[in-house]
Amino acid sequence: MEVLREKVEEEEEAEREEAAERAEWVRMEKMMRPVEVRKEETTLKQETLRDLEKKLSEIQITVSAELPAFTKDTIDISKLPVSYKTNTPKEEHLLQVADNFSRQYSHLCPDRVPLFLHPLNECEVPKFVSTTLRPTLMPYPELYNWDSCAQFVSDFLTMVPLPDPLKPTIKEEEKVLPKKYTIKPPRDLCSRFEQEQEVKKQQEIRAQEQKRLREEEERLMEAEKAKPDALHGLRVHSWVLVLSGKREVPENFFIDPFTGHSYSTQDEHFLGIESLWNHKNYWINMQDCWNCCKDLIFDLGDPVRWEYMLLGTDKSQLSLTEEDDSGINDEDDVENLGKEDEDKSFDMPHSWVEQIEISPEAFETRCPNGKKVIQYKRAKLEKWAPYLNSNGLVSRLTTYKDLECTNILEIKEWYQNREDMLELKHMNKTTDLKTDYFKPGHPQALRVHSYKSMQPEMDRVIEFYETARVDGLIKREETPRTMTEYYQGRPDFLSYRHANFGPRVKKLTLSSAESNPRPIVKITEQFFRNPAKPAEEDVAERVFLVAEERIQLRYHCREDHITASKREFLRRTEVDNKGNKIIMTPDMCISFEVEPMEHTKKLLYQYEAMMHLKREEKLSRHQVWESELEVLEILKLREEEEAAHTLTISIYDTKRNEKSKEYREAMERVMHEEHLRQVETQLDYLAPFLAQLPPGEKLTRWQAVRLKDECLSDFKQRLINKANLIQARFEKETQELQKKQQWYQENQVTLTPEDEDLYLSYCSQAMFRIRILEQRLNRHKELAPLKYLALEEKLYKDPRLGELQKIFA
């Protein structure tokens, strides 16, 4: 084996040396070629290029005749910048390069579809696709979620064999009786033939049923089988490709720009790739996509697999091995190649697209018009933006029985920002069962409400958040004849209460469930174990037979016993032979005690126990009645909540929060009034009167007194006019209110409830306006003399009226 290995290595070494010599000979032959031969080759190449250019000029590129997706009706192009409407010289040059590139591609690949190079924008101006991209500085890890790349590790559990509980131990085997002393079972007198026939018949029935189900399933599968797609492989869609290698990207993957979901490049839904582009270059896929995208190599530096359009310094480099890298030793060829690249390089123009700005309102809509509908097989999903629907509906899932989606099976609706804390509503159209789910915070601590009708005394199940209730109620089940309640964490250890109702007594007058409750026939209560009491005194179940006037008790069973004590009380209202009412007799208490005790047999103990049970029965009946009233209150509250469906708004949402908006407007109004007050204090109250005198002239004593009197007289008249204006508005509002009251007295009999509501609303608003005017008038009367005196004092202290100070000095 060692000799064979050495021989193979020698042959490989000889082949490598021969290949190296051949390559060196070819290079030397090129260097030794005469200049004339090189000139002939250059001339031949030029002629070939001219012929190719002539052929390319004759090629007509087919452009799609479809209209642009954006029209002037949908977008106001007058507000767009100049870069949207025109092309720079560099962009025009790029379009010419792209057109030449497209002609060459159509000449070399006539069977492939035309390239998507320069579509029309919203202003119907051709733009190269790479210039529509605006690069961002945000790193990829902040843009995408890498949870899909996590690896999951399986846990291996060691299964320990457990002993067989059916196999007796050694001691148990010793206790097993000998076989000759065992009791023989009775003979089986049934006919085995009849049993076999019955089994055979049942097997035939099951086989027929399985066959029918199999045929039904095959029929459904045939109906659900997708029809042949006539456009399979002809649809073109733009996706985002993220290449691995940089920014800790482990592998290549696609991103759907409409949903943001990521997909592997091995996904079978991707049939092929026509071209790739970014903000720097444009590449054409030259690989065969017979196996979809599974075998594609995304090495953009390989011109054999990816034909690039622009040759520049930013072009992706080919991934070379060490052998390929060591083969590039000719410095002259490298320098010549660099010169050619420099001559043919072309820098991509900057993007003509403005930076995308999304307002908070547009971002909150999440989709056009805030609504999105997704159709599935036998299901339809509808989504809405928050606050778009007045009832807070954000999502609805409708499932159907048939493929045509005509027969509804069930509906699920999700809500947000509901004041009643409603989160989910589930409606089963088959059973007409509706189930409402609530978040914590409902006034009645509701958690789940299942019902078929909102009418009282119907089938319903209500679950509560027990931590939000003081009575520890968890669930309440109601039917037309029963009511069952489940408790937890109560100090009296009550866990269960079941009430049976009888038919309601009919009354001639109209009565409701509150005024005419259902008669209680039986109440059953169960209790958890109270460790503070002995088991024979701790009641486990208590039954009040109201109609039969009996009370049954069952106590908890001790751990070392197999049965529990029981006691029954009879509430008789009989009288003795003297006419006296019988209070307690030995036959009114029937008991079974596991361990009899003397004090429980005394009539006094039994009498006190029965009196205590009577009080408990009265309390239990009252609690059942309160439970009925609570159900009525819950139903009434739910009807009001469904009618109002008020939504909660955050205090930070100033656009929707009316209270916050009113508070902000009030603060702005106060600040504006303060600003006006400051401006008023800065006004020159003597300016209108000083304008009547020649400028720069010194005031005489007589002129100063006249200016002071005119200023005070004008201010007094303005105060009087303001008081008269407030008084006139006050009298006008009062007269209109009196007329409205007189009209109401004349037409009170014929008014509708809506008219009465409008009248009461008008009276309330009119009284509010009258009260405000009255307050303003009183305040003006109080402040007018003070303002007059303040102005008079300012006039005396004004340095421009210095003669006044001499008079009163």
Automatic annotation (TrEMBL):
InterPro entries: CEPT76/DRC7_peptidase-like_dom (IPR056290), DRC7/lobo (IPR033551), DRC7_C (IPR056292), MORN_DRC7 (IPR056291). Residues 368-650 form the Dynein regulatory complex subunit 7 MORN domain. Its main location: cytoplasm. Residues 236-309 form the CEP76/DRC7 peptidase-like domain. The keyword DNA-binding does not apply. It is found in: Cytoplasm, Cytoskeleton. Residues 697-804 form the Dynein regulatory complex subunit 7 C-terminal domain. It holds the Pfam family CEPT76_peptidase. Residues 321-335 have a biased composition (Acidic residues). GO terms for cellular component: cytoskeleton; motile cilium. This is DRC7 isoform 7. It comes from Pongo abelii (Sumatran orangutan).
